[in-house]
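NodB homology domain-containing protein, pasting as requested.
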Amino acid sequence: MLSKIALSAAAIALSALPISAAPTRLTKQSLQVYTKCANSSQVALTFDDGPYNNFEQNIADHLLDSKSNATFFLNGNNFGCIYDHVDEIRALHANGSIVASHSWSHHHMTTLSVDQMHDELALIEKAFIRILGLRPRLFRPPYGEYNDDLVGVLQQRGYTGLIMWNRDTKDGSGATPDYCKGVYDQVAGGDIVLEHSVYNSTVNEVVPYGVNVLKQKGLDLVALDLCLGLGIEEVYEEVGKPRNGTWHC
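Structure tokens follow.
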């Protein structure tokens, strides 16, 4: 997805926030790159680029009806401003979905300096802290692009997982709903599926079809903590209580 905000604007916004670009309270962590689930009876559905139009809640509601969960990789200001979706994000978290970082503005991270990488991550972390009282420890790089500099920055900031995928519906590349459904027909146990929660056809046509297909295959649809065998402390760092306030991107 193309970012809807210039990185320079994000950097300016960061300067007004009481958070250092490179936190000093965290020690360097071991960062794992994940492409598949650990359990061959499970599938992880993952959705990028939100929040947008309450589509994430629509997906979560459909999954909950089938006793399933998903993971949502959120931007701060891409298709929509994260601060316009506070109640939705809190509901997603409360109902068992995992919410994780997809950077602030969906910039190509490998084109940034190390300081700019810290800026992108600090802004989205600040939003998570305000909304949930949690700092995310799972990250998916926009466009799936990462390099050694980004890995080092993620380790310094205490991230435990860089989450990739092994199955892509290509909805983000303009694939038709029929193509996306065909990808679901091929999904097998252990897969991490990439989709985007910003398209009406994905939310209201492809996901219901896919959930039905995977359930017929006898697969469990789980969030990434179960898929990867992670403890909750490896998914989030608790840093306080959610805050009440009005914030802007």
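Note for the archive: Residues 57 and 88 are 7 Å apart (CA to CA).
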